[in-house]
Amino acid sequence: MKYLIFLLFALSVGVFPQKKVSEKSPYDFDLKVNHLVREQFYSLSAIYQIWGNFTLEPEYGYVYYHRFSLSIGYRFNQINYTPFIIAGAIYQRENFTKNTHYDESYLKLGVGLETELSHNFFFNFETSLLNYLSINYSMRKIKYRENYDFGESFDYTVSVGIGYRFHF
């Protein structure tokens, strides 16, 4: 019988140097709307995640994963929503508790949409295409993966998130 326990820890740190779109807003006639017109900016994020699929493999033990990603994006701020594009690199390691692991690296290209729920709280939706570049130097130690294709492949992901933006 297989048991699945899902653990996720993610830490995201962003740097948001802002670029002024224009000194004079086309919405000057309405101060409330003018306040909602955001500036365009670049963003840089670093995320670390750890999670596990604790299914016991008789020869290899339990499985857990580490993933680190570094991304840079550009956000086109609108009145009530913020479309953005993001590109980055992901490094992931799959560990088995009996001293076996393999590594993967990805190049990430994504687009998304973010909306502000209330003051500094936001919700976002992101889709990305991952170009899988294999550097799995120890994968051949794992018997059930011996026939794995070491060539390039593509993976499509969808993610949603909610967060709070801090201003310093």
Kindly report the average pLDDT value: 64
Give the biggest beta sheet.
8 strands, antiparallel
Q: Supply the helix-strand structural class.
A: mainly beta
- Helix proportion of residues, in percent? under 10%
> What's the number of structural domains?
1
Low-pLDDT stretches are: 1-38, 136-147
- Which of globular, elongated, flat, extended, rod-shaped describes the shape? elongated
Task: Give me the count of strands.
Answer: 8
Helix count equals: 1
β-strand percent reads over 45%
Rounded to the nearest angstrom, the distance between the terminal CA atoms is 50 Å
Report the order of strands and helices.
EEHEEEEEE
User: What is the radius of gyration?
Assistant: 21 Å
Could you walk me through the main structural features you see in this protein, from its secondary elements to its overall organization?
This protein has one domain. 4% of the residues lie in helices and 61% in strands. It contains 1 helix and 8 strands. Strands 1, 2, 3, 4, 5, 6, 7 and 8 form an 8-stranded antiparallel beta sheet that branches. The radius of gyration is 21 Å and the shape is elongated. The N terminus is likely disordered.
